## 1
Amino acid sequence: MGVRKELHLTGNLGDGMQIEVDFGKCAGHGVCALEAPEIFDIDDESGLAVLRTERPEGQEAAVNAAVRGCPERAITIA
Ligand code: SF4
């Protein structure tokens, strides 16, 4: 069973908000998926964060909470 280890996963989730997860840092804690379940999920196979592609309105606060809550500082937004 291989573990996918992509360096980065970037998603443009609308309103110009760009979210990037650095898989070099991500350890699969899942804090992001708890803070912003509409945006983040944990991939069953790799155990790392994945971005949902569809973005409901009004998720900025949840995304910011995920950025602050990530223990590995793996999430950046621009
Ligand atoms: S909280 Fe950070 S380290 Fe944990 S799964 Fe999410 S992005 Fe990865």
## 2
Amino acid sequence: MLLITDSSLSHADVDADPKTLDIIDKHAKYTLTTYGRPPVVFTHGKGSYLYDVGHREYLDFTAGIAVNALGHSDPEVARVLFDQAKQVVHLSNLYYNVPAGELAEQLIEATRASGHFQASKIFFSNSGTEANEGAFKFARKVAKLTAKKGQENNKFGIVSFKNGFHGRSMGALSATPNPKYQKPFLPLVPGFAHAPFNDVAAVDQYVTEETCAVVVEPIQGEGGINIATEEFLKKLRSRCDEVGAVLIFDEIQCGLGRTGKLWAHQNYSKDCVPDILTMAKPLANGFPIGAIMITDKVAEKIVIGDHGTTFGGNPLGCAVASSVFRRISTPEFLENVRKNGAHFKEQLESISSPLIKEVRSKGMILGLEFKVDPAPLVALARERGLLIITAANNTVRFVPALNISKAEIDQGINILKEAIVTFEDRTLDVAA
Ligand SMILES: Cc1ncc(COP(=O)(O)O)c(C=O)c1O
């Protein structure tokens, strides 16, 4: 694919403010390059918009990869951050603090009230990866204490799924079967196996008496917006019960209102519940925090000293999360996510292009699958003022702020349509 920069475009890379290149040079000189980034430097945002060094405005359909659920620089988030920072920022887990207790109560009570997952305890972490690491440790401890006699040291297998994504630390990476992420760091943690997603018939073969945990995203985000079937989640639940394994739902990307329900698994019947649920991304609208929510059955096996963190559960993050959670968990807010998510989906379905294969979505997590690699579309959209990201399987992923308006969705879709026309011209030209 040719990279053609067109200075007639509203947000052309070639017209970037000169300060942009200075800042990028500084990054290149002093920070480790593990990300390929476009030549744009953002300075601030407001709602669903971001602004670059040269004051150019971009509509943001990425929301920090499903993080800024309430948009950028939300005034209430800023107020809570400031007020809590004036009280106390950090205490360590040597002592109790007020916001962590309040947040834990809110999360557990709202989850129980759904009538689905009957969670009973929370452990706070700093990120999604760390939440998953903790979940794997808890599962291994449960297995050691509940395995059949003589099997205590054999029951350590963790099953995850093809196209799943659970993070980049060694345990989470071991559950993320993407050769691009795993290969440079082999060997990984022993005991991980990767089963085909949504393949009910394969479950018994992978989930055995040696399995201590199964980890699954009810909707795979990074993997291309792949939605688990009811039958598949039910089978995982029943197989985990059969072999005495813990079922972990990684709702780091698809949970916390993203689908228009508090948790993605609430889109399924009440049989589709985990023993452990991990969350992170939008919990504090961008302030780093994660959490592991567990049932009594798991909690009773974990004792003082089993797990720890310096920053997890700090009063600042928990105060912000508590305020964010109060807002995103109301029925009105979730109803709006469902309504605007349906509108977004209709708009995507209205795009006619020979390159498009299908639209997949649940609420405000949407995927537009192409017949070819859509990577060039990201730059084509950005140079027209729209931020989008890709996912696996030739899919463009849309995970905007949950409070994005219909007018903003329409504005973005119009830009996307223009970008797709150019993408088509270039792709079909190359193919011809
Ligand atoms: C489903 C899922 N799990 C885990 C993670 C890792 O979370 P973090 O980047 O906060 O460590 C991500 C991040 O994209 C994710 O989407």
## 3
Amino acid sequence: MTVQALNKGIKAVAFSRDGTLNHNPSTSQKYILRPEDLHLLPGVAEAVWAVRRAGLLPFVFSQQSCVGEGLITHKELRIIHGQMQQMLGEDARIEKFYYCPHTQAEECSCRKPLPGMLLQMMKDYNLEPDEILVIGDSARDFSAAKSIGARFVLTAPEQWEVVSALGSDSLEVPAYADVHVAVLAELQNISLSLPWATAKHHPTSAVAI
Ligand SMILES: [Zn+2]
């Protein structure tokens, strides 16, 4: 499937969570288990806000096997996501947090690299694969996006070789320094198709590109 080209009809952005929006857990901890251990990466609130401002829907899709392992309950995970939302602020509201709570042994269809969470998102919001931009920091994020034919951009340049090896010669995998840079670059590319792009007093209309 080749839907790697930038589609100007992007309607939704699906962010991976740990390592993309927030710092990965410390090396002694495999998971974020408490709200106080959640720390956003730089520019994340601005990035999600920019997605909202562009009229697109921001989602989180996240692997949280800590639930299946019994380290945390669904309710406790929702509290962590509530904390993330509070840190992001009202203008950067996440439309919905999708997560896979299962362990590998459960053989579910939502565990990345499988695309179950993205498929559910498509069903819930009536989205087509080429209307979704997936932003993540790992090969499994890429594989999930690729398997439905969604565009993927990488926020961990050091992973680029690994991720690119999973693609094909024709499959472009843009890599950006962080999620804010990724969102701004991608939005700039699709902005010509957005309704506000033609507004006379659009805030970025003075920016030469
Ligand atoms: Zn699952």
